[in-house]
Amino acid sequence: MTELLDAAAAWDRLRRIRTTDEALAAGMVADGDGGLRWQQPAASEALELAGRYLPLCLAGPRVAVAQLGQSLDGFIATRTGDADYVTGEEDRCHLHRLRALSDAVVVGAGTAVADDPRLTVRACAGDNPVRVVLDPRGRVPRGSGVFTDGAAPTLWVVGPEVTPTAPGTGTEVLVLPDAAAFAPERLLTALARRGLGRVLIEGGGVTVSRFLQERALHRLYVTVAPVLLGDGIPGLRFPGTPVMREALRPPLRRTLLGEDTLFELELRPGGGPSGGTGSGGRAG
Ligand SMILES: NC(=O)c1ccc[n+]([C@@H]2O[C@H](COP(=O)([O-])OP(=O)(O)OC[C@H]3O[C@@H](n4cnc5c(N)ncnc54)[C@H](OP(=O)(O)O)[C@@H]3O)[C@@H](O)[C@H]2O)c1
């Protein structure tokens, strides 16, 4: 009897797939709808993992995605900057899977200062991406873990006024010539030149909003937690529309992640959900 593919084995295969040929070699076959599915019988979690992450695996060598976990009223942290944690354990696992599928994980200076995040893959199997800190004014403390813990390589991206000294082993400083060089598409091109073509913009709100506003993202994952903060650090902010009928309504998919709801928005071709443009939910 054919063995049932479980979630751990499915993830182990998925995280190594970057092309259709690799997907076929990993045990997938055409599903008749233009997509791919596991050839062998698979547990429901293995099917869900393929549904959620295979489109990203196959999105090509250059893809930019972003994520935010927010409250029902749109905040990604309390007013003191505490984001520990906005969403639940399943969303943390989802975030770590996104990291594992990325060559680089990008955070803004605000997040690096507020959270001193590790940005490594711990909640699932996978390799750590290169950690990229966008810090035009060089305000992130030199003793931050991301510069000193040696857990993964770090690229500290600073402006021309910052003294370019690497704060720790494993940290490289990239000095950009001016503010224009921090434009999202230019940053993504600079990362791609270093072999970092698959990029996760992890936060915070200012950084993700800038990439969204400048149409640099292929897809955006927003997880909404059933919590109200009243005020705090805002998530997405960009110049809005005066009338509802002109509001941005990208194709999306919804997934329940424990008590949270994950919205996966397709913003540009290349990183879009393979399951069409409907909003049909997937069991989390
Ligand atoms: N819930 C979540 O999913 C989540 C995720 C990450 C972070 N957070 C929380 O979010 C908060 C921080 O978010 P935030 O929105 O205040 O700040 P942020 O997005 O982390 O950092 C913004 C700053 O990064 C620099 N920056 C980022 N992109 C840039 C670009 N393209 N060009 C030039 N500079 C760029 C700028 O630094 P300068 O100001 O120095 O110019 C900018 O003001 C923290 O409290 C953290 O805990 C929550």
TrEMBL record:
Q: Does the keyword Phosphoprotein apply?
A: no
Pfam families the record matches: RibD_C
- GO MF assignments: 5-amino-6-(5-phosphoribosylamino)uracil reductase activity
Q: Which domain of life is it from?
A: Bacteria
Q: Where is the Bacterial bifunctional deaminase-reductase C-terminal domain?
A: 66-232
State the InterPro entries in the record.
Answer: DHFR-like_dom_sf, RibDG_C, Riboflavin_Biosynth_HTPR
Ranges in coiled-coil conformation: none
Q: What GO biological process terms are annotated to this protein in UniProt?
A: riboflavin biosynthetic process
Per the record, the pathway is:
Cofactor biosynthesis; riboflavin biosynthesis
Q: Keywords on this record?
A: NADP, Oxidoreductase
Protein name in the entry: RibD family protein
Q: Which organism is it from?
A: Streptomyces nigrescens
